[in-house]
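Q: How would the structure tokens look for this protein?
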Amino acid sequence: MLKKLLLSSCAVLFAAQAHALTPEQAQAIVIGDSSDRIVAMQQAVQTPDARVTTLLQALADDMVKVHEGRVILVREVNGEWKGEDPTTGQPVALPEDAEDVVNNNRMRGEIANALAALQLFGPDAGGRLAAAKALATEPDESRLPLIDKALAAEKDEAVREQLNLARAAILLSSAEPAQRYAAVQALAVYRTPATRQLLGQQLASEEDARVKAAIQAAQRAIEDHLAWGERAGVLFTGISLGSILLLAALGLAITYGLMGVINMAHGELIMIGAYATYVVQGLFRSYLPGAFDWYLVAAMPVAFLASALVGAALERGVIRFLYGRPLETLLATWGISLVLMQAVRSLFGAQNVAVENPAWMSGGWQVLSNLTLPYNRLVIIAFAFAVLLGMALLISRTRLGLFVRGVTQNRPIAACMGVNTARVDTYAFALGSGVAGLAGCALSQVGNVGPDLGQGYIVDSFMVVVLGGVGQLAGTVYAALGLGLVNKLLEGWQGAVLAKIMVLVFIIAFIQKRPQGIFALKGRSVD
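A: Here is the predicted structure in token form.
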């Protein structure tokens, strides 16, 4: 038993020495013509070794010198530059006349590819997956033995799948038609834009009729698959835009739809919510850095209250004197919007401010090879419908909602029954303004936050409310989602500018035909 153990240990030691980086290999990688260096580097990569990785990383960082044919790695230790032997890692003298190693662009590209290949044997599955993807995008026949060795040792299914893709991409340029045909069959399973590009490049130079027919069939299957991803992507972006329009228009559905106030400062109330989110983010970064990922949860009530308080002050100070005079209300709120924008410029500056996504809203969910749904968009869609549900319950099931509906439908009768109509007006306007603040909180996660933020949504918000039907929450939902979907469909067909024009023309024609919008008020309230 002891004899077997000794023999096994000697075998392991001999293998480690055989794979260790030698001074001759280091010299061949660092010194000489670029082509010779690349060949030596590719040979060294075939037997992965930590010292090879260290040398290549030092080359990539320009931290290698040569003195009298000897390779020296340069390290900064306690503010001083020290030398290191690339084969042993031991400290060595760093002569003053040591020459820097200069790498041209070709050499740098090969070094980056070699480092990516060496990551195939790292401990992190994510790093191995990234390395396999890099090898698949830049097929190189010299990497085939390395990929085969990685496949033999790899246990992670995702990494194995990507390695098989990289292997097939390499065999696609083989001299043997049978290998190219097998590679096409293997690549046809991976229905990605990168696979389509690889097959297209090979088709241009393919001479074998059987392989060419296989490539064309694979391309058709990939195109059909990717077309579904593109359609689903347009549908998702349309719903995402519709949810943003819904958030922006919900507050206006109360202030304009229910109260009849043409509030041109609605966009600035959205902007205040976004800046409130920015302030909360700064407070968390300064005082609660460990809980930074949850700053958005705290920012939502702050954004609501900030915009609601500004809206209440606006209603009590200006708008309550202008009920029944829509033109004067429009002019007054337009002036207030300019004041609010200038106030924000004075407090935060004219430049946009950065609002970061929490970690749980970063990244996306890859549904198809060409369709990734961003987490921040998914969260905003869910948030928009949560706010909609909350508003619908508040308007239909609470005492405040009953008072708002009563004052909206018949103010004199509501006042005769003891309802404080002035207070209800303030509460309703503050509620609509607060919902606008929630919209600003959500918009801060998908776009720039600046003094002009609200200007991009005020016209769209009015279009949504008017198209849906004044005073109708259901109409607001249908109009927002419909406009979002139609806008994105037309953008793919005619471009962003013409799509906007076509949507505007459609709304004008629709309102001419049906002035009351999608959903019309019924009963005595119409009069």
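Residues 1-18, 523-527 have pLDDT under 50 and may be disordered.

DSSP finds 21 helices and seven strands in the chain.

Upvote if useful.
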